[in-house]
Structure formats: C-alpha cells, structure tokens
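TL;DR need structure tokens for one chain.
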Amino acid sequence: MNVTANVLVALVAALHAYILVLEMFLWEKKPGRGLSGFDADTARATAPLAANQGLYNGFLAAGLVWGLIAGDPTGFRVQVFFLSCVLIAGLYGGFTANRRIFVAQALPGALALAAVLLAR
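>> reply
TL;DR here they are.
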C-alpha cells in the first residue's frame, strides 16, 4: 500500500508541476488557452493572475516532493498537509471557478490523501 500511496503522491505532484507550466508559461498559447477557454485578449489580460496561480501550484508540487523524500514522521506529515491543501484548493476551485476542478484536482488529491492515510 505504501508504494501505491507514493505513486499517487508523485502523480499529484506531477499534475501540479504541469499546471505550473500551463499557468506560468503557456497561458497565452494554445495549451493554456485550452485550459482556461479564454480568447487571446482575455488570456493576455489575465496572464499575471494565472502566473500567480501557477506559482502556488508549484509550491504544492514542491511540498509533495519534499514529503516523498523526507524520512518519517516528517514525510508523512508533509504529505498529509500538502495533500490537504490540494484537496481544499480543488474543492474551492470546483465550487467557485469550474466544476472540472473537482475531477482534475480535488479527486486526485483525495485519492492520494486516502492512500497515504491508509498506508500509515
């Protein structure tokens, strides 16, 4: 079960690193605009906001990687903290921004958090 938990945590970290790239570097290009659904003018106007969001997603990814490489009990605690942050952000985003965020962020975070807690 510990291997499954680690794989899920790594996948959530990779997801958030990917979101960082989309929001910070590709927001005004086709992949970023596909994510947001914005036209070129709106993407250009919202690029600084997206970059800020991307930075926060990068912090989530970094925290999850830290949790994977840190020894216990720190690694476990860090994983629980950052996965809880992912889950809360996903729920908030799903309720306030776009329902797709429930599936894209909250669900993976919840599954990884459950796996980490069950592996303990």
